[in-house]
Every structure is written in structure tokens, then in C-alpha cells.
Write a structure and sequence with these properties.
Layout (H helix, E strand, L loop, with lengths): L1 E4 H6 L1 H10 L2 E5 L2 E6 L2 H24 L8 H13 L5
Parallel strand pairs: 1-2
Antiparallel strand pairs: 2-3
Length: 89
């Protein structure tokens, strides 16, 4: 994977975009990794794989009986728990 500083990527944006079309580019700031840029094609493939993995896990949960019927009461209970959780920092 190619590595590029955020400063260089900003100054040479065209080169940065061209590089990301060929392979993922790791962006650094103060020698610390801060982001990875990938091509649209790679992003679409990664997204499709994540969706497939989620569907597979969901089907496995159903097959194993790890399901709960989503009734109005169950939904309200989950919403109440969500509303009482402190926001993440």
C-alpha cells in the first residue's frame, strides 16, 4: 500500500487521486496514519462484501434461533434504552 502525507496529497492532489485508482493510499499526518483512500471500484467491492457478511451472519442467527420478534413493545424498549445511553465522546 502506498503511503503519502496529507500535506503532499494536498499539494499534489492529481497524483494522489491517480495513485488511489491503482491501489489504496495510506494518508499520514505528523507520521501518524489518519486515513486510507481507495478507488470507487474497491469501495463498492468492500461494501458488497460487508453486506454479504452481514446477511450471512443474520441467516446464521435465524438458523440458530437467535432472533427476537420485533413487536411494538420490543421496539419501544430498545428505543428507550437508546435514548438513555450517554452520547459517545
Amino acid at each position: 500500500m502506498k503511503t503519502m502525507s496529507a500535506t503532499l496529497a494536498s499539494k499534489e492532489f492529481g497524483r494522489f487521486i491517480d495513485a488511489a485508482q491503482r491501489e489504496p493510499v495510506l494518508l499520514t499526518r505528523k507520521d501518524r496514519p489518519v486515513a486510507v483512500t481507495v478507488s470507487v471500484a474497491d469501495w463498492e467491492e468492500l461494501t458488497a462484501l460487508r453486506i454479504e457478511r452481514g446477511i450471512t451472519a443474520g441467516l446464521a442467527d435465524v438458523a440458530a434461533g437467535r432472533v427476537t420478534e420485533m413487536t411494538e413493545a420490543a421496539l419501544e424498549q430498545r428505543l428507550a434504552r437508546f435514548r438513555t445511553q450517554p452520547p459517545e465522546a
